[in-house]
Amino acid sequence: MDVLNLAHGSFYMLGAYVGLTVLGLTNNFWLALIAAPIVLAIIGGSVEVIFFRPIYRRGHLMQVLLTFGLTLVFVDLIRWRFGPQTHSCQRRPDWTVPCMCWVSHSPPTSCSSFSSRRW
């Protein structure tokens, strides 16, 4: 690949905020889980074609400068749209999480679902 990408964390952050936005608009977690990677694939492909391809032959310093600049732009766009505070989705009381037997080391007969309010 030979690409020095310092903006990978910013792409991850964009995916999280896309998922949070879809979840807020539709109140459907599974749709948000499907939509975020699709939107990020489109953004990543666009960034690849528009920004990365022209600088492949210019060396690693240009790639570092570009990806660091992309990080600054992505962070400022998120800060402009969502504000500087941390965001999270609210857990609804009717959501249930399946018991993971292999984590709790309990026998399979005792596994069941429990409410996420007990966390």
Largest sheet: 2 strands, antiparallel
Write down the secondary-structure element order.
HHHEHE
In order across it, which strands form the biggest sheet? 1-2
Q: Number of helical runs?
A: 4
Which descriptors apply to this entry?
4 helices; mainly alpha; disordered C terminus; 119 residues; two-stranded antiparallel ribbon
Structure, described:
The protein is mostly helical and about 120 residues long. It has a domain at about 10-85. Helices cover about 60% and strands about 5% of the residues. A two-stranded antiparallel ribbon has the order 1-2. It starts with 7 loop residues before the first helix and ends with a strand. Residues about 95-105 and about 110-119 have low confidence and may be disordered.
In brief:
This protein is mainly α and 119 residues long. It has four helices and two strands.
Secondary-structure topology with pairs:
Blueprint: H1 8-26, H2 29-52, H3 60-82, E1 96-98, H4 101-104, E2 113-115
Antiparallel strand pairs: 1-2
Helix pairs in contact: 1-2, 1-3
